[in-house]
Amino acid sequence: MSTKKPVTEFTVVRKRWRRGIEFRNFLRDSSGKQCCLGFLARENGYLAKEIKGVGTLRYLNWRRTEYEPIAFAVCGVSKHLNDMAANLNDSTISTDEDKEEALIRLFGTEGITLNFVD
After folding, report:
1. 28 — phi, psi (to 5°)?
2. Which domain does 68 fall in, by range?
3. Which of 3, 43, 44, 90 is 20 to 30 A from 34, alpha carbon to alpha carbon?
């Protein structure tokens, strides 16, 4: 885990983006795919092995025997954004484009720029 200031911009690589209801509850899976919050955690200094198999930022520090708010502070997000981003990432919104637009708007409410690249 990093002690640097939280990033204000991060990028999701579409081919490594884990999304959809069947993929619920993992920042990073065993194949290396990550949800949007997984990409944010990695950008903020968490190691791949630290986020693998962890549900959301809410549960990240429980594995490190620290209190829940630490991951939120490290990644610069609120509990509300964490919960909303997880729900959007795993929602059944009709297209990935709609999901991307919704996530970009959501992260923007807390001053974080989210980009998607191929």
Report:
1. -150, 135
2. 9-117
3. 3
Dump the DSSP string for 60-103: HGGGGTS-THHHHHHHT--HHHHHHHHHHHTS--S-HHHHHHHH
Alpha carbons 89 and 53: distance in angstroms, whole number: 16
The DSSP H or E segment spanning 12 is strand 9-13
Cα distances from 24 to residues 4, 37, 105, 107, 115, in angstroms, run 29, 12, 21, 19, 21
Q: Which helix (H) or strand (E) holds 113?
A: strand 113-117
Structurally, how many domains does the chain consist of? 1
Q: Is the pTM of this model over 0.85?
A: yes
In a domain, 2, yes or no: no
pLDDT, tens only, 64-105? 555 555 688 888 888 899 999 999 998 887 789 999 999 999
For the chain, the straight-line distance linking the first and the last C-alpha, in angstroms and rounded, comes to 27
Q: Is residue 3 part of a domain?
A: no
